[in-house]
Design a protein that fits this description.
heterotrimer; A alpha/beta (298); B alpha/beta (666); C mainly alpha (170); A: 298 residues; alpha/beta; Glutathione S-transferase Yfyf (Class Pi), Chain A, domain 2; Rossmann fold; 4-stranded parallel beta sheet; 14 helices; globular; C: 170 residues; mainly alpha; Fumarate Reductase Iron-sulfur Protein, Chain B, domain 2; 2 domains; 9 helices; 0% strand; elongated
Chain lengths: 298, 666, 170
């Protein structure tokens, strides 16, 4: 059984622990072991800390990677931001000797050292690549009749030349996962577009971030999807909290439930929605759960 | 035999003359040529040693000739520039002096010495001494050699029947050479036949092409092999043995009158390749009305008889009884002296540029599809329409550089798309002056004769040009397209609606992987066929006797294609007119007494130039002097030392190494 | 419009242009086609014009360091992916931001969030409400991150010190 170091980041443990719990249960069902990364910090957020100082960003990322190295287990992330940081930092440190030396010099002040001995994975791609059959076994066709608007986010697939995971203009693997669960992945305008949260925009220019989210929500609403499915905790927060903020600040209501892929898989595997944290969202997931109940009873 | 000590020099007294060139200051500026000449004068076998400012010049060559004659020199060493520059020159000089040209040896003390050690004069001079010492030792063992002269077949194979192939064929045929024009489609004409009007004159493309097509078919020296492909090529320059496979049309070409009754009756409709899928043809078809030869062809992939064993309606109704379902492919064997590749281009697959929606959005088309639409004899009878509802578009956008100038697809510029779009934009405006036509470009390349003037005219007609590479295209419910772009001259972003989008798809080389393997042809990094020299030898390849022209060598317009086709014909005819070709005698030679018939050399040879033959019951290796390239692999492989590499024998190579070592260790 | 600094286009470390290009030379290949700006989801609703920013860097301008435009980019990387010359505009954007912060141009909201990071090790630290949710899900009240490992937080803070981050954010 291959174990992975579960990198939690910030938003999962500190805002949407349902994702953490869902992930643990889903991985357990898949027979995959997860190790805690004790003492891990913020990844650090690529568009925020990376915007202030690339050197600090690389060093803090290296520290997190070193923790996984101590676990002797590859990293798995639940957020595109964390994936973007850890994957890119790992790649830079592996390929650039100067950078690695400089970072290890800083790390030595804390008794840690980056060795380059682990890989970084995004949970969605990992599950698709290695556990698709099990997913079909455990949850195949359990979401039949449900329409899902998939949002890939940005740092999972881009930059394409570095990530080499799927074509960012026309990705397919999460849609395939959704399809394997029996649900319909609906097409919607500007599916590839950013949610608006990243790059420090949410913290310093919330109206701009929300306007992007609003545009996405308009397009998703037009597709008549039953929920927005994301693979990134930050997008999750932006769509979920963002809808509440849009309602409060601009009187715009969409009420589209937001579900993280770990939670969707949990639902498909028949796990208790409460243990997936679906009751703790800003936008009620009840309509989605009702629809699920309705189609499964047919 | 390997490991034997250096042989004694030949019995005939060898008298070496060493000539050191200054090459102006190119060599003399770094190497002490005077000291070098003095050093050379002291080497064993050297009778005469001197230096001169420009040996390749008339007086320089005169010096060599005069010294040879005066002193009875029988070996010449020239220490100068790279043999690639002037070995031929000095071989001629030596021949004029009465010696066999292969008694010349060149020491490269420029590219391999003075030019790369410009700041190290002493070391460079010492290195030059070593190089000269090596050349002198080699020259002691140089033997007179005679090149092989072979006859050249006075016929040419032209692969590809587009305008390039047609032009080259006519040029050669007019000179009296026999031409075999092979084309894989059922008709010649290529892409030019698909065009409506040509820029900048707006000539009707078919009108200017069809006379040439007819000439090619009627010319007594041109044999058309259409619906055919080259399957194998053996041999060498002057004598290529080509096998062409004629695919079966299932129609007797000698009987078919092209009356068209068969196509009328045929129940199967297929998207027409000639019309880029915008129109239809039948399973029995002529690709376009002006096809040459004007004969029907049955497409076995769609014909009901071929796929399901039923129908045969065409056969029933053909008044000439020309349908022959039993027709088989025919292998045609040809012997030609030269081959010209004119295989043309294909279009970049725009569906790869996902953000433009080609293949998903109905009203996004390519420039070639537009050509078929605007052609009076095309699938829409010359009407420019939106594929989704067949209505006339009011707002048409042209997007440039799709699949060109782009690290994500092809880095090169496809050269003709700017002009093609300017022309097509003009055509839209001409048919509907109230329409809005915009060309979105990064650069507008109007490089040719009359091109810039044409742009000016078209702008005057009201075509707008916006500098900004369109970022993405989004379709709405009506089938209209919204373009997102920045107008870079304004520095402002826009989302603008159009009802028809034409993509200027880039040019990619035709898929000729098989042919390239057969002919061992290289490509440049852009995928087009490699010319021998980008500036000075644009229509020759690295293989003697094989020429290239037209878009196969790189994207180009019709004038350049026709010019290059004539150029290739001219080069080929120079070869054929000579009637003879010289093969360099620097090849392998087998000592049959030493050969054990093990066959390792045969396995090692890349050029199929050595084989085993049975002589008096024993297997012996034999070299085909014509195919042998003198690469040396067999010589190195032979365990018995039976293979000698002429002009580069083991003794010579070892002698050179020893000379170098002993010089530097002085 | 200020005049471009005379030496602004030289590749020394003192110029913005020089510093950006020293971290990667891809920007030099930009042909100003505008595909980046056309693709930018932020540019559609703000004043951010990526292409223009790139040209300003290439031409030696430095005034953009003080502008809000720099901070309107969500680093979505669509421009990076689509650029036909691989000029990597997103990387240039981040480098510009680094220089701006170094020169003291940092938004208060970002300073706030950066300080949270220095204090807690998380940009988004936990609160009581979420602690309760964690508990109800059967998870540990505090996650196994720096939140529950004070010695790790200290380690992180040492790093933030030695890399100069604390000083940087003011």
């Amino acid at each position: 059984m291959t174990d992975y170091s579960l990198f939690l980041g910030c938003i999962v443990p500190n805002r949407y622990p349902g994702i953490e719990s869902a992930t643990k249960m889903v991985f357990n069902k898949l027979g995959v072991g997860l190790k805690d990364m004790l003492g891990a910090s913020c990844c650090p957020a690529p568009g925020v800390v990376g915007s202030f100082s690339e050197e600090t960003w690389l060093t803090v990322a290296a520290r997190n990677l070193a923790i996984a190295e101590e676990n002797h287990a590859d990293v798995v992330t639940l957020c595109n931001g964390c994936f973007g940081t850890l994957f890119e930092a790992n790649s830079t440190l592996k390929n650039e000797e100067e950078a690695r030396k400089a970072v290890n010099m800083f790390l030595s002040k804390t008794g840690k050292r980056y060795k380059g001995s682990v890989e970084v994975h995004h949970f969605a791609k990992l599950i698709y690549e290695k556990h698709l059959d099990q997913v079909k076994q455990l949850g195949g066709q359990s979401l039949t009749g449900v329409k899902i608007a998939v949002h890939y986010g940005c740092h999972l697939l881009r930059p394409r030349t570095l990530k080499k995971i799927d074509n960012p203009e026309k990705p397919g693997f999460v849609d395939e996962l959704v399809h394997s669960l029996g649900a319909e992945s609906v097409d919607y305008r500007d599916k590839h577009m950013c949610c608006g949260a990243g790059g420090g925009v949410r913290s310093s220019n919330l109206e701009v971030a929300l306007d992007m989210t609003r545009e996405k929500l308009e397009n998703i609403r037009a597709s008549q999807a039953d929920c927005i499915l994301n693979v990134c905790a930050f997008c999750h927060l932006q769509f979920d909290r963002g809808q509440r903020e849009l309602a409060e600040k601009m009187g715009l209501e969409y009420n589209i439930p937001v579900v993280h892929l770990s939670q969707l898989l949990g639902l498909a595997f028949g796990l208790n929605p409460r243990l997936l944290g679906l009751q703790a969202h800003a936008i009620s997931t009840q309509p989605f759960l009702r629809k699920l109940a309705e189609v499964s009873s047919r | 035999m390997k490991g034997e000590p250096l042989k004694e020099p030949p019995k005939e007294p060898v008298k070496v003359g060493v000539f050191i060139c200054h090459c102006g200051s190119n060599i003399a500026g770094t190497v002490d040529v005077k000291a070098l000449a003095e050093f050379a004068g002291g080497l064993p076998g050297v009778e005469f040693s001197t230096h001169y400012v420009y040996l390749c010049s008339d007086p320089g060559q005169g010096l060599i000739k005069e010294s040879v004659k005066r002193l009875g020199l029988n070996r010449v060493v020239v220490a100068a520039c790279s043999p690639r520059m002037h070995e031929e020159t000095f071989r001629r000089t030596v021949r004029e002096a009465g010696l066999n040209p292969y008694l010349l040896e060149v020491a490269n003390i420029r590219e391999q010495c003075s030019w790369v050690h410009m700041n190290q004069k002493e070391a460079a001079t010492e290195k030059a001494k070593a190089l000269v010492a090596a050349a002198v030792v080699k020259s002691l063992y140089n033997e007179p050699l005679e090149p092989l002269t072979l006859g050249v077949e006075k016929s040419v194979l032209v692969v590809g029947g587009g305008v390039a192939g047609i032009q080259a064929s006519i040029d050669l045929a007019d000179q009296g050479f026999k031409v075999y024009l092979v084309e894989k489609q059922p008709s010649i004409g290529g892409h030019m036949a698909q065009l409506d009007k040509t820029f900048p004159t707006l000539d009707c493309s078919s009108c200017i092409l069809t006379p040439k097509m007819v000439e090619a078919s009627r010319h007594e020296n041109i044999e058309l092999l259409t619906y055919s492909e080259v399957k194998s090529v053996e041999g060498h320059v002057g004598s290529f043995e080509v096998t062409v496979l004629k695919k079966p049309r299932y129609i007797r070409e000698d009987l078919c009158r092209a009356c068209g009754i068969c196509a009328e009756k045929c129940p199967i409709k297929v998207p027409s390749e000639f019309d880029m899928g915008l129109g239809e043809r039948k399973a029995i078809y002529i690709p376009f009305p002006q096809a040459v030869p004007l004969k029907y062809t049955i497409d076995p992939a769609h014909c009901l008889y071929h796929t399901k064993g039923v129908c045969r309606v065409c056969e029933k109704f053909c008044p000439e009884k020309a349908v022959d379902f039993d027709q088989k492919p025919v292998e045609v064997k040809l012997k030609v002296g030269a081959i010209i590749l004119a295989t043309g281009y294909d279009l970049y697959d725009c569906s790869q540029k996902y953000e433009y929606g080609y293949g998903r959005y109905r009203n996004v088309i390519t420039n070639l599809e537009f050509e078929r639409m605007v052609s009076a004899s095309g699938p829409t009878s010359g009407q420019i329409i939106r594929p989704s509802d067949r209505k006339s578009p009011r707002r048409v956008a042209f997007l440039q550089c799709v699949g060109s100038r782009d690290v994500n697809s092809n880095k090169y510029c496809s050269r003709i798309c700017c002009m093609a779009s300017v022309k097509q934009a003009h055509q839209v405006k001409e048919k509907d002056p109230s329409s809005d036509v915009v060309i979105f470009y990064t650069d507008l390349r109007c490089f040719g004769k009359g091109y810039e003037e044409f742009l000016e005219r078209v702008q005057g007609e009201g075509i707008k040009v916006v500098r900004g590479r369109v970022a993405e295209v989004v379709e709405d419910a009506s089938g209209n397209l919204r373009l997102r772009y920045e107008n870079t001259y304004l520095g402002e972003v826009f989302e603008e609606e159009f009802d028809l989008v034409v993509l200027a798809a880039g040019l990619i080389p035709s898929d000729i992987k098989e042919l390239r393997t057969i002919l061992k042809l290289s490509t440049t990094p852009d995928g087009f066929l490699a010319e021998a020299h980008p500036k000075l030898r644009p229509v020759e390849t690295f293989t003697e006797g094989i020429y290239v022209c037209g878009a196969a060598q790189g994207p180009k317009d019709i004038p350049d294609t026709v010019a290059q086709a004539s150029a290739a014909a001219s080069r080929a005819s120079a070869l054929l007119a000579e009637g003879m070709v010289s093969i360099e005698p620097i090849t392998a030679e087998v000592d049959e007494d030493r050969c054990g018939g093990c066959g390792l050399c045969v396995q090692a040879c890349f050029f199929n130039a050595i084989e085993l033959e049975v002589k008096e019951g024993k297997r012996k290796a034999k070299v085909n002097q014509v195919l042998c390239k003198g690469c040396g692999v067999c010589g190195a492989t032979c365990p018995s030392g039976a293979v000698k590499m002429r002009h580069f024998t083991d003794e010579q190579l070892r002698g050179e190494v020893e000379a170098i070592l002993s010089t530097v260790r002085r | 419009m200020p005049d471009p600094v005379q030496e602004g286009r030289s590749e020394t470390d003192e110029t913005v242009f020089g510093e950006i290009v020293s971290r990667g030379r891809n920007l030099l290949k930009c042909i100003q086609c505008g595909a980046c700006t056309g693709s930018c989801p932020s540019g559609r609703r703000t004043q951010l014009r990526v292409r223009r920013l790139m040209e300003k860097v290439l031409m030696g301008f430095e005034d953009m360091l003080n502008s809000d435009d720099l901070w309107l980019c969500t680093t979505c990387y669509v421009c990076f992916d689509r650029c036909p010359r691989d000029a990597q505009p997103t990387s240039v954007m981040k480098r510009l931001r680094n220089i701006a912060v170094r020169k003291g141009f940092m938004k208060p909201a970002h300073q706030k969030v950066a300080r949270l990071f220095c204090e807690t090790g998380h940009l988004v630290p936990i609160n009581d409400e979420v602690k309760a949710v964690r508990k109800s899900l059967g998870l540990s009240e505090l996650p196994p991150t720096v939140h529950s490992h004070p010695e790790s937080l200290k380690e992180l803070q040492i790093l933030l010190d030695v890399t100069g981050f604390r000083r940087l954010i003011g």
